Amino acid sequence: xxxxxxxxxxxxxxxxCIETCPFLLFKKGDDGFPVIxxxxxxxxxDCRHCVSVCPTGAITIKGIRPEDCEPVCKTQAISxxxxxxxxxxxxxxxxxxxxxxxxxxxxxLINIMRWTPSARNSQPVSWLVIQKKDIINKIGTxxxxxxxxxxxxxxxxxxxxxxxxxxxxxxxNLVIAHAHAEGFNPTADCTIAxxxxxxxxxxxxxxxxxxxxxxxxANSHKQLADLLDLPQDHKVYxxxxxxxxxxxxHRIPPRKPAEIRWL
Length: 263
Ligand SMILES: Cc1cc2nc3c(=O)[nH]c(=O)nc-3n(C[C@H](O)[C@H](O)[C@H](O)COP(=O)(O)O)c2cc1C
Hints:
This protein is an alpha+beta fold. It has helices spanning 16-20, 40-43, 49-53, 80-89, 103-112, 133-149, 154-161, 186-203, 212-218, 222-228, and strands spanning 4-6, 26-28, 34-36, 59-61, 126-130, 173-180, 207-210, 234-243. The strands form 3 sheets. A 4-stranded antiparallel beta sheet has the order 5-6-8-7, sandwiched between helices. Strands 1-4 form a two-stranded antiparallel sheet. It has a two-stranded antiparallel sheet with strand order 2-3. Residues 2-31, 33-64 form the 4Fe-4S ferredoxin-type domain.
């Protein structure tokens, strides 16, 4: 299989593939057709922008043809106002209905996150979805224990012992984003994935809340790490409680004004 094929019958020599390639792996040849540089194969990050952007569908890369890609659907574009409303109405949800979220919906949401950006397109995020109540409870208990031991807000641990769960909020699901610690930028990649997941979940009528206390405990508490049993050298970089919100929010709370410098 050729690394890349340019169909010269379709290529209109517009140079778009050259301008959009992250590592400039093409240049214009003497005849105007794009030429692949010799180091392209080793430097390509598999982003497939060349296949996606070519208006005439002239490029096939590593066996991926234009017809192998899902088409962009113009009618699905959402309005600026709808995006603004979606972002402004997302709230951290801390009270959930007991209604479970189906695996089908969770699967769909997590699969959408395959298209979130990642450093060098490394797509390093793996997911652990915890739905079993007894495991969520164990995680809450171990996090509380760790908070007491490390004196991080011990009052939250005390409340937990008295049946008030400020750690995982009795959420029916805990979704964890983990990645190899030696990756290019696992913190950013997992943070983006969880952030987009929370926003997408809101659009699906679900609600999420970052599980910050758990995240701090997850990579430090041996028993908790054993329970999660992540692949070797993986760490937790993001975690979201997820479920159907028990209450509706009727107003958008004010936020600080954006602090912007223009140069
Ligand atoms: C990294 C991170 C960790 C967080 N951890 C927690 C947490 O452990 N518990 C919690 O109730 N909220 C947590 N939150 C939610 C914030 O408190 C919340 O985003 C903030 O108060 C603003 O509210 P809003 O998300 O509804 O706009 C966390 C948020 C982030 C971004």
